[in-house]
Amino acid sequence: MVLSTFLSAVANILHMVITAYIWVLIAAALISWIQPNPFNPIVQLLYKLTAPAYALVCKTRIPTVFGGIDLAPLLLIFALEFIDMFFIGLLHEIARSL
Questions:
Q1: What is the pTM of this model?
Q2: Of 56, 75, 76, 83, most Cβ neighbours within 10 A?
């Protein structure tokens, strides 16, 4: 009973973290289109939060298509959604079976 509640709580927290990071990725992608002031603290925070994930995706040499649009944010969002649906769902199923 306690382990089931703990796993369910961990799954819910991980879901919230993944969802928040997806919104950070979306905000950073939208801001990159308007060429913001790089000294703005919000812009700096968004770049610091997304730079490691972008570096991970850019190592795979993903081409830009459709007039130079970077697909890295979209791929990261798809990967995070997969993790959210599969692994968080798996944690919930394990918690229900206990």
A1: 0.86
A2: 76
